[in-house]
Write a structure and sequence with these properties.
Layout lengths: L7 E6 L4 H10 L3 E8 L5 H9 L3 E5 L5 H14 L5 E4 L20 H26 L5 E6 L15 H24 L3 E6 L24 H14 L7 E3 L9
Parallel strand pairs: 1-2, 1-4, 2-3, 4-5, 5-6, 6-7
Helix pairs in contact: 1-6, 3-4, 4-5
The protein binds NADP nicotinamide-adenine-dinucleotide phosphate.
Length: about 250
């Protein structure tokens, strides 16, 4: 989506805070309709933005519940025929007692499953149900916010087993989905994007020692990722990119 293209419809999944909320803020002036999802209770800032913006629609969607994904998308289909941009911003690194593992001794199967459920499976379930909204003659983009740490080739430092593996799985699931989309919805470009370390609740406990130029504001990350999405070419579908548009190895 570019600022020159009117009547663009957008879905931001995981829009309650952080990078997802930043996408909603920046896309509002350009989009004709924006659908924004939250897990349980819409945050005060998202609620406030929706109250001021008739084109912004809020939907509950816990990504671990397929029925909520399908009913949320059915609600969108009752209002619009097509989506042009879908951004999957859901993800977690720490949640309650789940913390990134520093060693094998900290591996817990239930925690690994939770990482996969939220960070990987949610995205492919979304891709499963999105085809009717993305399959149309205009260009569309399905972007998933991944993480460089999910690159198997790039893994030189170890640790964070569950988060790493769930992002590697996200990349594999969405690359596979990209191949199926190329047949079933050929105008859709599927991409996995590394945002760079960004100042959100997710990164907050791990920011100590980072040089200021290595920590992006949400606003900067969103601007950079929108520029990458704008420049994506059909033959790049299924690829993994960092925030400046350079390709990352799987
Ligand atoms: N921040 C970074 O430095 C960084 C670096 C690399 C990659 N990333 C990736 O960027 C994406 C966005 O992260 P962020 O930094 O913006 O983190 P954040 O501020 O913690 O936001 C996480 C989002 O995920 C949603 N979410 C979590 N579990 C969910 C579930 N079960 N169902 C539906 N939504 C759920 C949250 O929704 P609720 O608020 O409704 O719970 C929230 O909107 C993630 O995929 C993350 O892995 C971030």
């Amino acid at each position: 989506m570019t600022s020159q293209t009117p009547d663009q419809t957008v879905l931001v999944v995981g829009a309650n805070r952080g990078i997802g909320y930043g996408f909603v803020q920046q896309l509002l002036p350009q989009a004709s309709q924006i659908y924004a999802t939250y897990r349980q209770i819409a945050s005060p800032e998202l609620t406030e933005l929706a109250a001021q913006s008739p084109q912004l629609h809020l939907l509950p969607m816990d990504i671990t519940d397929e029925a909520q994904i399908s009913s949320g998308l059915a609600q969108i289909r009752r209002q619009v025929e097509r989506l042009h941009l879908v951004i999957y911003c859901v993800g977690f690194l720490h949640e309650g007692e789940i913390q990134p593992e520093k060693s094998l001794q900290q591996i817990q199967p239930a925690h690994l499953l939770r990482y996969f459920e939220v960070n990987s499976i949610g995205a492919v379930l979304l891709a499963k149900h999105l085809i009717p909204l993305l399959k149309h003659p205009e260009r569309s983009v399905l972007a998933c916010i991944s993480a460089k740490i999910g690159s198997i080739t790039d893994n030189q430092s170890g640790g964070w087993y569950g988060y790493r593996a769930s992002k590697a799985a996200l990349n594999m699931l969405m690359r596979t989905a990209a191949l199926e989309y190329s047949r079933k919805s050929p105008k859709t470009i599927v991409a996995m994007l590394h945002p760079g370390t960004t100042d959100t609740r997710l990164s907050a406990p791990f920011q100590r020692g980072l040089l200021p130029d290595k920590l992006f504001s949400v606003e900067r990350t969103v601007q950079q990722l929108l520029a990458v999405m704008d420049g994506l070419q059909p033959e790049q579908s299924g690829e993994f990119f960092t925030w400046d548009g350079s390709p990352l190895p799987f």
